[in-house]
Structures are given as C-alpha cells and as structure tokens.
Write a sequence for this structure.
C-alpha cells in the first residue's frame, strides 16, 4: 500500500514550445505543447506540493505573457479538483527558483517551504552581474525573493544545503548542482517507505522536460539527451538524469518531467472543465481516485 | 535598485535561516555598489513637473534601500527588524514606479475614429477600402 497519494495537476500551458529547448540538439523539429504543472501529495498527515506555480499578476504575468503561457488557473481552482484548498497545504518543496515553479510563494498561507541554499545564493549573485548577464536570471521574478524573505521571518522557509534524506517520511531531496539552474533540486518519494524502495517516484524539476530526455528520440538507440536550456553544464544534466533513473531502478516512467505533455496518456487521468488535466500516479490507503 | 533590493533580501534570508555565522556581507556590498550607480543616475535626472510623482517614489525607494544598507551594517550587527521594514518600503515604492510611467496620463481612445475603424475590422465587417 502506498504511503502517499500523488497527482500531477496542470495549471496552464505553453502551446507552442520549441522542441529545441526541451531537447538539446534537434534545432528544426518544431514545437510541442508544454503544460505548466505542480505535484500534489497527500499522506502521513501532510498535504505537500512540489512547486507552487506562479501568480498571474505583476511581473509573473509579464513573464507568462512573454513566454506565451495560456489557460492559467490559480491554485484555488486547480487544487479543488482533488478536494484540497491552498490553506490545506502544509509543505512545499521548491525544485528551482524560476517563476513558474516558485512564483506562488504567497499563495499557501499555512505551508512551510523548502529550497536549496545554492539556488538562492547563486540567484542573488547572478543579479550582481549586471544587465548584460540577464539570461542567467531571465525566468526568475525578483519579487519572489522578497516573498522568500517574508517567509523566512515567519520561520516558514527551510533552506537545504545539499542532499537531505527523510525530510518527511519517505521523501528525500537531492541537490542537482549546476544543471538547469545552479541549485536545482529533485525529489524522491519512496512510497513504500523502504530505503531500497520498490515503489519510488522521482520529481525531476526541470532537469528533464520530457521522457525523451531519458531515452532519446530513436527507440532503437536509447540514450540520455540533455535539455536545451541550462545555466549549468550538459554533463551535469546527464549525470543527474542517470542518478534519477537509478532511484527508480531504471524505470523511466517513474522519473516525472512535470512539463511532459504525455503524462496524461501514461497514467490514469481526466480532463477538467477548464481544459486542464489531473494525472493520478498513486493512491494511498483510504484515498479515492480523483480521475474516475 | 531592484538589484539592490534582491541582494538585501537575500542577505536577510541568509540571516534568518541561520546559515551564515559569521555574517557574509557580500550581498550588502553588492547592494551598496548598485545603489551608488542608481544614485548617480537619478541625480543626473531633472524631473519635469509631470514626472514629479514618479520621481518621488523613485527617490523614496532609493532612500529606503540606503537606510536598509545602513541597518545591515549597524554597529553591533545587522538590525534585522529595521532592515526588513525598509525593504518592504522600498518594494512598495518600486512597485508604484514600475506601474506609473513618468508624465504619461492615460488617454481614452475608444471614441477615436481609428478605434471605430478597428471595431469594424474585428467585428467581421468589411473594412477594405
């Protein structure tokens, strides 16, 4: 029996995302749909989010418009699909500081947030470099760091320095330094609670955008392919992908790329009235399905 | 100024999450340098009357950030309470600055002849010459 129920919840999308950003190399292979999503976990008395999404106003809206984001819905509406409100959320694990993952820091009034020290430190450092280096901070909303400071004052911001096992029962955090971002973090859920889990899920952050990053495009010649958008190195991205696969015993589909459009076809899912998707990865004991 | 605000907020997070003993003043120094640049830039501005409101918020933001740097460098250690209050003030003023363009007042074009022309086009009516 699983310890945590796990869902992936779309909250917006970029309908025309260049494949060249998702996969390093194929420059003229067109576009894909790129859902914006976060993960919801329920179990062990906790309601946990992996990432916050963003708030569609002020600079968050500016960035969303810049990137062609459509069909935004706030967490009130999105979480309600699973019978949860933002006030119910107790923990939020931030994979990295880009606006679509961390821009909703002030939307969950009772949550404690976890982020890597390196992510905050290097982000602040990048902002000292001047506007000619704005590529390095392009997808980050400077207002989010003030939100983070407010949370720190309320003792609701936990800064993690490297890997951390059992941050909550069966949940491990891993630093993926100098990959998609400087202090990206991926999350392992050992859903049977065992150290050598036979029921592990990995939430990859944006260290992979698609399952194709783990397999390549040629079924007959599988290999790791890095994403096309990183401030770190391609080597680190490949090593991170290999590590994540190791966590799941090599089972590709259990390494979850939150932006993967095919999650809804890979796992049980349903389309909501808002034309978003609820994808169900696991159900804990006593939990009812949210997709049937 | 936005860069300075982020540096000082990062410094606050480091302090409040108890990660830096002794305190790393790097972000404060970076903020001080950024504020020096902005002080020179704003001093070179001669704000016309119509931009006075915008400029007053710009100036207030810079003043708050200057004082936040002072609070960070206070003798006896950073004054976190004062610093945070000043950062919130600076953020407030910068948000206003980013919303209000200096000296520009909104003009209602909905009754202009070009707007009516646009309505015709987008309602599907022929606007071809």
């Amino acid at each position: 029996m699983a310890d945590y129920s796990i869902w992936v919840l779309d909250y917006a999308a970029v309908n025309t995302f260049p494949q060249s950003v998702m996969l390093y190399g194929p420059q003229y292979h067109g576009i894909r749909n790129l859902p914006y999503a976060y993960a919801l976990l329920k179990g062990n008395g906790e309601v946990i989010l992996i990432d916050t999404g963003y708030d569609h106003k002020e600079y968050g809206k500016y960035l969303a418009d810049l990137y062609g984001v459509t069909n935004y819905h706030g967490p009130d509406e999105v979480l309600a699909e699973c019978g949860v409100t933002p006030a119910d959320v107790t923990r939020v694990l931030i994979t990295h500081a880009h606006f679509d993952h961390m821009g909703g820091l002030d939307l969950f009034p009772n949550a404690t947030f976890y982020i890597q020290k390196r992510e905050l430190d290097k982000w602040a450092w990048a902002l000292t470099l001047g506007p000619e280096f704005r590529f390095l901070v392009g997808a980050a909303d400077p207002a989010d760091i003030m939100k983070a400071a407010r949370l720190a004052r309320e003792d609701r911001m936990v800064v993690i320095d490297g890997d951390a096992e059992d941050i909550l029962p069966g949940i491990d955090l891993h630093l993926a330094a100098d990959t998609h971002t400087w202090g990206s973090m991926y999350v392992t859920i050992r859903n049977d609670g065992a150290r050598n889990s036979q029921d592990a899920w990995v939430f990859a952050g944006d260290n992979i955008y698609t399952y194709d990053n783990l397999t390549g495009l040629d079924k007959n010649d599988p290999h790791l392919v890095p994403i096309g958008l990183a401030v770190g190195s391609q080597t680190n991205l490949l090593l991170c992908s290999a590590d994540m696969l190791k966590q799941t015993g090599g089972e590709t589909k259990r390494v979850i790329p939150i932006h993967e459009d095919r999650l809804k076809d890979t796992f049980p899912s349903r389309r909501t009235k808002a034309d978003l998707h609820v994808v169900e990865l696991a159900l804990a004991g006593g939990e009812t399905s949210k997709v049937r | 100024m936005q860069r300075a605000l982020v540096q000082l907020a990062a410094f606050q997070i480091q302090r409040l999450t108890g990660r830096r003993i002794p305190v790393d003043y790097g972000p404060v120094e970076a903020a001080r340098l950024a504020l020096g640049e902005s002080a020179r830039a704003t001093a070179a501005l001669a704000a016309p009357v119509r931009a006075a409101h915008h400029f007053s918020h710009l100036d207030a933001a810079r003043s708050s950030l200057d004082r936040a740097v002072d609070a960070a460098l206070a003798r006896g250690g950073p004054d976190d309470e004062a610093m945070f209050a000043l950062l919130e003030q600076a953020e407030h003023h910068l948000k206003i600055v980013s919303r209000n363009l200096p000296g520009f007042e909104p003009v209602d074009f909905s009754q202009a002849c070009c707007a009516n022309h646009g309505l015709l086009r987008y309602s599907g009516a022929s606007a071809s010459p």
